[in-house]
Amino acid sequence: MPETGRRVCDPVPVNLAQAMKQIVPAVQDLKRRSLTQRGGETTMPPSLIALREDRVLTVVTAPRLTAVVACAQTLAIGLDPQMLVIAAQVNLPGREQSEDLPAQTAGEGMAYTTFNRDKQASLAVQRYLVREGEVSFGPPERGRPDDRTLMDELARAMSQAALDPTKVARTEDVPAQEGATPTFLPEAQGRLAIDAGTVRTAYDKVKGIGGTALFVAADGAHATRMLAAGLPQECLLGGD
Description:
Helix content: 25-40%
Number of strands: 9
Order of helices and strands: HEEHHEEEEEHHEHE
Structural class: alpha+beta
Distance between the termini: 35 Å
Radius of gyration: 20 Å
Shape: globular
């Protein structure tokens, strides 16, 4: 796990705190699942999370952080998220109190690096403790990054213009003659097509190294529509 010298004592900003209510349960579940991996591995794989309309929409996980980060632009352009988050397990080094930083006890934690459409970057850290195969979590706290690489990557992704769901057409609806206007799908159907294609693209990027991309359906009807729009069955979560 990477080490970080992040500060973990400041209160979390309100906007981040609201987002964390959606993010944290998903990441905690990923961490619990990581304790039962094959070969005795217990490190949670890095994860990229997209939020839209105040809920977790897509989660991409992979064994390598670089592979997860490489999907940020794909999700930003395709899903038009309100926020992207990279969650990763970190080692928090111990240190004595100084003029700039408080004392910190060495331990493990989850680091959440976020960037939203308002171009606001944040870092939160959540300590956890594993005892007898069970994990307990402390409250998320604001962190201070000693390396802004992940924030910069998310910023670059979120600076890209998102695809327009009103400009989506089926192949058969595109006229053969040059310059003719295609028949576009209704916006709701265009949104489904873009979402399904985006998650499929992210999945193709990470599945070769043991990664996955999951779309969280709002309900059963949403799940059915996403599958009809081309979402791979293995990428569907929820909607039972």
